[in-house]
Amino acid sequence: MNPTPASAIAAPREPTIFDLSRSGRRAEAQMPQAMAADVPPALRRRRRPLLPEVSELQAVRHYTRLSQLNFSIDTHFYPLGSCTMKYNPRGCNQYAMLPEFLGRHPLAPVVQGQGYLQCMYELQEMLKEVTGMQGVSLTPMAGAQGEFAGVAMIRAYHHARGDLDRTEIIVPEAAHGTNPATATMCGMKVIEIPCNADGDCDIESLRKVVGPRTAGIMLTNPSTLGVFERHIAELRALVHDAGGLLYYDGANLNAILGKVRPGDMGFDVIHMNLHKTFSTPHGGGGPGAGAVGVGARLLPFLPIPVVGCDAKGYRYLDERDLPQSIGRLSGFMGNSGVLLRAYIYMRMVGREGMQRIGEYATLNANYLLARFRHEGFEPAYPTRRATHEFILTMKHSARDLGVTAMDFAKRLLDFGYHAPTTYFPLLVPECLLIEPTETEAKEALDGFVAAMVAIRKESVEDAALLKGAPHTLPVRRLDDVRAAKHLDLTWKPAA
Amino acid sequence: MSNNVPADLRYTKSHEWVRRNSDGTATVGITDHAQHALGDIVFAETPEAGRTLAAGDACAVVESVKAASDVYSPLAGTVVAGNAALADAPEKINTDPYGDGWLWQLTPADAAAVDALLDAAGYQRVLAESAE
Amino acid sequence: MAFIPHTPDDVREMLDTIGVASIDELFDEIPATLRAGPLTGIPPAMSEMQIGRLMSERAARDGRPLNFIGAGAYEHHIPAAVWAITTRGEIYTAYTPYQAEASQGTLQTIYEYQSMIASLTAMEVSNASLYDGASGLAEACLMSVRANRRSKSSRILMPRAVNPIYRKCSGAIAGNQGLRFEEVAFDPSTGQTAVESLAGYEGDDITAIVIQQPNFFGVLEDVDRLTDWGHAHGALVIAVVNPTSLALLKPPGEWGEKGVDIAVGEGQPLGVPLSSGGPYFGFMATRMEHVRQMPGRIVGRTLDLDGRPGFTLTLQAREQHIRRGKATSNICTNQGLLMTAATIYLSIVGPEGLERIASASMARTAQLAAAACAVDGVRAAFVSPRFHEILLRLDTPVAAVLEALASRGIAGGYDASGDYPELAPALLVCATETKTDEDIARYANALAAALGAARAA
């Protein structure tokens, strides 16, 4: 395959919905009965909002066409490292969208929600089992909110013991940016520690910073460098002996699902990204779900509501049941519809399937890594096994040819592959973080390697082709500087 | 990478420069090295006149597409003015870091404190070390 | 059923390429003592057919009661096209638009969304959405501390008439950073937050004041006076608004002399199903001068290498992946799917449709209020203009009444007695355009019967 670089290709374009609008046009079938409303004149809106006036067909066609400008899992291999872009089974969507589930008001009496609540209760139990934790709350609405809940619980734990000086959270420098941002949101001071050349945390640096001010450490294991933290037992002992707690960032749980449990590794608290490991859809950037699990010490502090079960059935546990809870993080109980999808996925995968996920995600990553190695690409951590993902560094292409990781990423789009994660983690120069997931077939992986090999050949013969890529998409590279300097954030009618 | 380090200015390890003005005030900006590292600057926020600064206070922000960096006050003192022209033309920091791209002017609490900062040779050594 | 495509031949070939004998060998860097045993607590796999049957049975147990609950989540008709398009794979299974060239659909949709929210609220800019309305208010409070440079107090005035869950959520999320929330009383006869009750704060350093319109009781606040009070006292003004109501009510950008500084709210009424509380989305809009203090993703229109217009994430330097510990928030994503549904919803209903929906909801609630207050033992808690909710005071405890209504297939309202003991027994009810004359009559009859039975017991 050699995608034509000709910019002559008529890229699909679509005007904005406002450009389609004509005064007085409307979707008649959606109009409710006209009824008079008695609004006090001083509080009445004077001018109508600038919303489009289009027919139902125009709206349907417009958003269908826009959707066709996207890459997605359903249409493309999407090896975006750290994001676990695996197949989102359609059955999970269909059965989470049964009319009774969609129509249930969050404050409806629990007698009118026993079916839903049973699913939630069982989901909590299954998440406890796969993580080895003692309690789970489903309420955080995304990974970042799960992190927030985790660090807030660590803080609440120390405070409850009168240990008010523990104000520092240790974070390895390879961590996701959310880790330090979360610690700050919880009023904590962030202490960053380096990683060594093999990608493990530097134990000596940790030894120097742990102490009576340590509230806890946030670890991602396997780390964002795509390797398993081998000194986990030593790390745990160091932090626990100093009186700190261990936070497990579950971003990479897919790598070890069914093989190792964070609870068994000694972690006190974990957040899980259900939209990664348990395959709920990413939806163009959300909704996610960031359930948290805790060990015995943090049980009283779980965010509410949690679903409990007694002789009368299932019900929400609230302030009265968990008076020491860190409180509420959402209007009701988080992203319920996402939680239902995760529940259905876990029931379909089942006990044996759960263990196969970690195994095949790891097999696919190591196979891709081996193929790339054979083709002469350079792994960032050549002595290490891949976990569910791995990093290639393009630093030699960048130095010798001026062709960067970003150029490879953009050219991959022309070949019909979503780009891997670029420029994260920040530690590795010119990196591509590649995560194939367990749901991709060998042929897809081989095709991806072939595309990378072809692009590398192009980079030697015609670097300009890469620098100008992509060539076949609806737009070419966009001017980010212009976007930030001349902010155009809303549509305005032509003057 | 360009390393324009004028001999008549003072510097910090965090890549700010200071110019002593004849009226006793001092002007602060970021170095040529710093503006290169940040890339195209799209926004700058400077301190308000009258604000009291301690040495090391994060009191300005320069933002490029890929980074937002705090700028730390090299000196304690009172702000005379921020560079209002940067609001419409932040790219002046890229094109003229030691001139029109200045960030703020202050009256130092201690005039002698300027002398304690790095001189051009000292800053050159900082750059040489970080390049290794 | 782990959705794994590998054939035995594939596995053998792949292991050979890697140079290991078994998949297990790939885990040899993990200490043996840490390896997990069988996950006995996970039930065996189910086929799609089996899980479909199980879920249908569970859904049937929940039933489809006739709903009169609002209290932050509102039942509106959703055009069929909204979710038919939103669940297309190209939208449903895409991720955050980091690769702008491969995400123009998502990015343009966000740009259109931002335009609609800005116009609906009469504010200058909107972000790409937050998690939900409650956490959106917490983010707005944190933002006000960054944006109000003159204030050093981090004190936020929070009326007691603001949704109690929003107040709790703001405390849980923003409290860790030293924000102090101070409760402002409501007038017991009108249910409004009276400007007079702010007299005690005269001369104080106040960072921001929150105004919810309509407030939790469904009552319309005197937003102009409250907004002007806030600005006159150096505070930023944060509006919490219902998006449907904005088709009829004065938008926050026009409150008082200058308009508010930050507007947030729950986006669920715009095409998102009730779904036991989520996923919903929070919207947030502000003035251009505060755009860099706004959390969350923002999309801008720019040009590509060929000078053609295109859309991209912008102002990313505020965000956690670049700014780390100094980011405006730890939020990564927006609620992309829900925001997409809302954009399609607003396109289909249009300005006239939204106004009709708001008017019909208001009219149906007036009808419900009249019918309910005609029942013996029921009266309105406040005599004030309202939108599409009303707080009823009953002469018997609410819990038993709701139970009796539930047994008749009615979700009868929200028991506000716990949040507002001073008003107990208090029941918050709501009607939208989805309710008919018959529905309202059925509710009133059931309420009369339930109250009668409770009194007899």
Gap from first CA to last CA of chain C: 54 Å
Biggest sheet descriptor of chain C: 7 strands, mixed
What is the succession of H and E elements of chain B?
EEEHEEEEEHEH
The general outline of chain C is: globular
For the record, the CATH class of chain B is: Mainly Beta
Poorly predicted ranges of chain B:
none
Radius of gyration of chain B: 14 Å
Biggest sheet, spatial arrangement of strands of chain B:
1-2-3-9-8-5
Cα end-to-end separation of chain B: 14 Å
The helix count of chain B comes to: 3
Which assembly state applies to the chains in this document? heterotrimer
CATH architecture name of chain B: Beta Barrel
What does this structure look like?
The complex is a heterotrimer of chains A (495), B (132) and C (457). By secondary structure, chain A is of the alpha/beta class. Chain A has helices at 56-67, 90-96, 99-103, 114-131, 143-160, 178-185, 203-209, 232-241, 262-265, 274-277, 336-374, 395-401, 405-414, 442-461, 463-467, 480-485, and strands at residues 135-137, 168-172, 189-193, 214-220, 245-250, 269-272, 292-294, 306-310, 313-317, 390-393, 421-422, 431-434. Chain A is 36% helix and 11% strand. In chain A, the strands form three sheets. In chain A, strands 1-7-6-5-4-2-3 form a seven-stranded mixed β-sheet, with helices on both faces. The two termini of chain A are 47 Å apart. The longest helix of chain B has 12 residues, at 120-131. By secondary structure, chain C is of the alpha/beta class. Chain C has two domains: 80-344, Type I PLP-dependent aspartate aminotransferase-like (Major domain) (Aspartate Aminotransferase, domain 2, 3-Layer(aba) Sandwich); 351-456, Aspartate Aminotransferase, domain 1, CATH 3.90.1150.10. Chain C has helices spanning 8-18, 48-62, 80-86, 89-92, 104-121, 133-147, 164-174, 223-232, 320-323, 336-373, 398-407, 437-456; strands spanning 66-67, 125-126, 155-159, 180-184, 208-213, 236-241, 262-266, 282-286, 299-303, 309-313, 378-380, 389-394, 410-411, 414-415, 426-430. The model of chain C has no long low-confidence stretch (mean pLDDT 95). Chains in contact: A-B, A-C, B-C. Chain B binds chain C through residues 43, 45, 48, 63-68, 70, and chain C through 149, 292, 316-318, 322-323, 326.
Name the features.
heterotrimer; A: 495 residues; alpha/beta; Aspartate Aminotransferase, domain 2; Aspartate Aminotransferase, domain 1; seven-stranded mixed β-sheet; three-stranded antiparallel β-sheet; 16 helices; B: 132 residues; alpha+beta; OB fold (Dihydrolipoamide Acetyltransferase, E2P); six-stranded antiparallel β-sheet; 3 helices; 32% strand
